[in-house]
């Protein structure tokens, strides 16, 4: 017998997102049905529709929560770690703050992003979600690199953004940490060093 739709969306929402993460990152987005998500979450199919409306909305919410690390309606650029990085007067210290925070985000979101990218070729709505997420990443990185440019004369913001996007992609994170066994400390140190080189910081200190 199906369980009733829960009046309080919050417990159901968490169970559904946990189930969706498991299924999207293993079976894939296209192969995962609303029914499968409901079964994995231990809720009624109607509950998934009640809380999210459709599968694409489940995926979008999962991305948001994975990036933020919580359900708080606070944009990435308004997060404390961004403010701390921008306010830090020492350029290397700024890089360490932002790279560490970005890696913690990738720890949560990289598997989901890889599932989104895999599904984007066959689903226009998912492709748009992938594009929007990539643009969001670039916007945040550009904000941070622009702040760094105020501390390092001659820094090429576009170049640093390009390098950052390559170093902090879900593919690079998965390759080095998941497949090659790099520690989080090694990964962070490598990204900081490469970004510092791109920014020309090592030539100035």
Chart the SSEs and their pairings:
Layout: H1 9-24, H2 34-41, H3 45-52, H4 55-68, H5 80-87, H6 91-120, H7 124-149, H8 157-167, H9 170-179, H10 184-199
Task: Briefly characterize the structure.
33% of the residues are buried.
What tags apply to this protein structure?
205 residues; mainly alpha; Arc Repressor Mutant, subunit A; Tetracycline Repressor, domain 2; 10 helices; 0% strand; disordered N terminus
Provide an overview of this structure.
The protein is mainly alpha-helical. It has two domains: 9-63, Homeodomain-like (Arc Repressor Mutant, subunit A, Orthogonal Bundle); 75-203, Tetracycline Repressor, domain 2 (Orthogonal Bundle), CATH 1.10.357. Helix content is 72%, strand content 0%. The chain has ten helices and no strands. The chain is elongated, with a radius of gyration of 19 Å. It starts with 8 loop residues before the first helix and ends in a 6-residue tail after the last helix. Residues 1-8 have low confidence and may be disordered.
